[in-house]
Amino acid sequence: MRRSSEHTKTRILAAARERFGTAGYDRATIRAIAADAGIDPSMVMRYFGSKEELFAAAAYFDLELPDLSAVARDDVGPRLVAHFVDRWERDEALVVLLRAAATNTVAAEKMAEIFTTQLLPTVTAAGADDPLRSAGLIATQMLGLALCRYVLALPPVTAMSCPEIEHWLGPTVQRYLTG
């Protein structure tokens, strides 16, 4: 019985989500994902091109942005920084997606989508003067921090505690919100 290409892609994505979730990115293989989906590994490559593109397509990340409506407007920036540091610290898959986004357009689009769809509403609700610009600038800070801390592992940045990062970047993010 022939499967439609959409059905095959759906099976591959489901298998990839499960395999990446249980084995992690590095230990998940195209062969294992294909076996889980009940297809030949060449089909995975046909539909997704590479492991990085498959990961980006399968990845959905909830930034778990907090409701900041009860936070004083002048404290939103530091709270966002603290939240993002905590979020990056808890989810290696976000770091994997960031690494992939540096060289893969599919992963880059996924990262942009995550930040656009999730950060913009939070920034808007926080009363930013120019929500679109503010969300973009906040993303530059948080992605830059993640790149330097978790991918490049720059010693001065990796040595900083979370409260230190909040202290240094919080005012910058606050300025992006309130001008």
UniProtKB/TrEMBL annotation:
Family annotation (Pfam families): TetR_C_16, TetR_N
Boundaries of every HTH tetR-type domain copy: 6-66
Start-end of DNA-binding region: 29-48
Keywords of this entry: DNA-binding
Cited PROSITE patterns: HTH_TETR_2
Domain of life the protein comes from: Bacteria
Sample GO molecular function, one term: transcription cis-regulatory region binding
The name this protein goes by in its record: TetR family transcriptional regulator
